[in-house]
Structure formats: C-alpha cells, structure tokens
Design a protein that fits this description.
The structure holds two protein chains of two kinds. Chain A has one domain. In chain A, 46% of the residues lie in helices and 3% in strands. By secondary structure, chain B is α+β, with helices and mostly antiparallel strands. Chain B has a single domain, classed as Alpha-Beta Plaits (2-Layer Sandwich), CATH 3.30.70. In chain B, 24% of the residues lie in helices and 15% in strands. Classes of the chains: A mainly alpha, B alpha+beta.
C-alpha cells in the first residue's frame, strides 16, 4: 500500500471516529432528512464513500447502459429533494439543502449539478413521455424561459 | 461494409416493440424462423435495467425523405422538448441536436427536405480526434460524449462532417434527469439512449409519427427481422457522404 493510501486511510479513520463519537458540532451542517427509513447503504458508509458509488455507477451507465437506480445520482436527488411551502421543489444544490449543506461545511466544490438535474423532472414541467402532453409541456417550458426566473428563487 | 451485407446478418436480438411482443408469446412460437444457436426465450427478454448493452445490436434510423415535408419540424421540437434544449434565442451558438435541411439537386433543381443529426457512424471521426477519450462509440453503435471527461476542446465539432455537434457556452439550470448537459462540454444527438435502454423509441421518431409524416423508422440494423432492416433490404437507401466510408447508423431513402 502506498504512503498516499495510508494517509488517506488514516484521515478516513480519524474522520469516522470523530463523526461517530462526537455529538454534532455547533457549526455542523443541518439538512433535511431524505424519504424513507434509511439510505441505500448504511449512513456511515454513505458519508465516506458516496462519491465512489456515484463514480462507479456513472461509468456503468454511460458506457454499459446499466440503469439501476440504487447508486444513481438521480436516486439521491429523488429521495433527498425538498419542497418549499408553495409545494415547489427546491434545487438540491441550493444553500441549506442536502447536498450543498455538507459540501459547504467540508469546503468541497459540488460540480455534479452543473450538468445534472437538481430536482425530479416533474419539478420543471411534465413533458416528454406522456402522450398528448407535448404541447402543454412545451408551453410551460417556454413560459419558464421567458420569465427569466432563476430556479434558485424557489429556495427562498 | 455495404448495406446488403449488413442486413443479411442473422437475427440476433429484436427491437423493443418486437421484444415485448415476443415476451408475450415466446412459449407458443416455434424456433423455425430464428435460426440455430439462439433460444427464443433469451431473445424474448427485454434488457433489464442491470443488464449491459451488447454489440449484437446496432441501433439506427431510416429516414424517408419522400415523406419528410418541407416546413415540418416535428422531430426538432420533439428533441428540444425531450432534452430541454431551450437555448438562449441565439441561433448561432444555441445547441442543436437535430436540424431540418433542404437539399437541392443542382442538375434538376429537385429539392429534398431531411432531418440532419448525428449519424452514429461505425467509424466516427469525432472519436478519432478526441484527445481525452470523451467521444466514444457504445457497443450497440450509439456515439456519445462522456461529459465527465470532455474538456470542451471542440476538435470533434470540427471533425464531424455532418456538423452534428454543439458546444454549451452558457450555464444551464433546467436539465432533465436523464439528459445531463452543462457549460464547457460538447454534446450531440444521443439517439435518446435513455429511451433505448428502456426499450422505447427516440423522441424524434415518436414526434415524427405523431405530429409529422411518419418519415422516420428506428430499429436494430443487426436484426434481420426488424422493420428497419427489412425495409433497407427491400428498398434502396443511402448514407450522406457515403464517400467517407463511415458506415453511418442513420440512412436516407429517396434522396
């Protein structure tokens, strides 16, 4: 095992110990719970390894056409996305939301959502696969495009 | 490879619609028309979501320019809606995965209307020139960009003889969950790979059939029993810029 890996392992173990033994620090991120009883993997494993699961799934999907949802980013979003008081989805990378709050705390730039959807598809418009709904979907999209309203407004 | 050799390949895996049909009647059908070495039960199974793709398939489109009407852009609208290609009302730089062209025969003056999109070549020039390996051809013939490793150099945009690729110049916010798109990467028609993995037909074909003139057929070029392979065997079709020898997955009739 290389020195780099040993150091990484050490850091992971210390992080795990700290996170397991200390109650939430005063400045620890506060974020909403996801749906359901528990995540697709135990919480401690997800905290440390979610990025590994995502990268693995990403390559399987892009190159091999594997479309399982267990470790997909879409599944993360579907489960952890929140709605505001008006019933609209809040982008998962908005301040205080599930993904953003932790990454901000850990000073990690979250760039998944420069390309990936930040909310389930029905959050934008009901389109596409529903027969006969194409026109209304396009109209909704056009209306959104012309309103020039950033989606981040929904977070307020 | 020419068309006849392609369409004469043995039946390997039916297209989506046929798979579903077969799934229902698999037990009752004889193996006679399928040929030796393959079990109809295996053929009948649609790709499950955890199954990997296979080079036994080669997905393609056949476009009948005689049916494709000038002024009809149902396929373009269908694509834009499916992938949220809203654009910024700046036609020169907005993404364009499929566009309508009018081509004129200089000798006769005959005008044909056709949709132009990524031709999903067997030997794609975009893959040849990509310095990072982001441009790639899936085993089932679909040419894609892995945007995770695309650096936005746009060599592929230059290399594509069909001008099929676009570059995303500006930050986007309303992507579909199945169609990630982002600033600084190159993109093009994915043949609606998310739909194909789910045994459905691409959005442009669906729109053309519903709102247009039914000029597009989608299917498996390797499956001799598919509608697309049968039509290509029985009637002439051609590749655009066939002189380049790219063996495109998108073919045109009556052109």
């Amino acid at each position: 095992m290389s020195a780099g890996r040993l150091i990484l392992l050490g850091v992971c173990m210390v992080t795990a110990l700290v996170s397991a033994n200390t109650p939430a620090a005063a400045d620890a991120p506060v974020f909403p719970r996801g749906k359901g009883e528990q995540c697709v993997e135990p919480t401690q494993i997800m905290r440390k390894n979610h990025m590994e699961f995502l990268v693995h799934q990403r390559d399987d999907t892009v190159y091999q056409g594997v479309r399982t949802t267990k470790h997909s980013l879409k599944n993360c979003v579907d489960c952890h996305v929140q709605k505001n008081s008006a019933g609209q989805f809040i982008p998962i990378d908005a301040p205080g939301q599930f993904c953003q709050s932790c990454h901000e705390f850990a000073s990690v730039k979250l760039d998944c959502f420069e390309c990936h959807a930040t909310m389930p598809d029905e959050g934008h418009a009901k389109l596409g696969n529903i027969p006969g709904n194409m026109e209304s979907g396009a109209a909704t999209l056009t209306a959104h495009a012309f309103s020039k309203k950033p989606f981040n407004d929904a977070a307020q | 490879m020419n068309l006849s050799s392609e369409s004469k390949q043995p039946a390997k895996q039916p297209d989506g619609q046929r798979r579903r049909l077969l799934a229902g009647v698999a037990g009752a059908v004889s193996l006679g028309s399928v040929g030796g070495g393959f079990s109809l039960i295996e053929l009948a199974l649609a790709k499950s979501e955890d199954e990997t793709i296979s080079s036994l398939n080669r997905w393609g489109l056949l476009i009948d320019t005689a049916k494709c009407a000038s002024g009809c852009d149902a396929c373009v609208k269908g694509c834009s809606t499916e992938h949220n290609l809203d654009g910024f009302d700046r036609p020169e730089t907005d993404a364009q995965w499929i566009r309508k062209l009018e081509v004129t025969d200089r000798q006769t003056g005959h005008v044909s209307s056709l949709p132009m999109l990524c031709q999903h070549c067997e030997d794609p020039p975009c893959v040849d020139v990509c310095p990072t390996g982001a441009s790639f051809r899936r085993e089932d013939g679909i040419v894609l960009v892995d945007k995770h490793i695309c650096i936005g150099c746009r060599y592929c945009v230059m290399a594509c003889p069909y001008k099929a690729r676009s570059f995303v110049h500006e930050s986007l916010h309303n992507q579909k969950s199945y169609s990630p798109r982002g600033k600084g990467t190159v993109e093009s028609c994915t043949l609606c790979v998310h739909r194909i993995d789910d045994d459905r037909t691409p959005a442009c074909v669906e729109s053309c059939n519903r709102d247009g003139n039914g000029a597009m057929v989608f299917g498996d070029l390797n499956d001799a029993d598919s509608q697309i392979a049968q039509t290509m065997r029985d009637t002439p079709s051609r590749q655009i810029r066939e002189d380049l020898g790219l063996n495109t997955g998108v073919r045109y009739q009556n052109l």
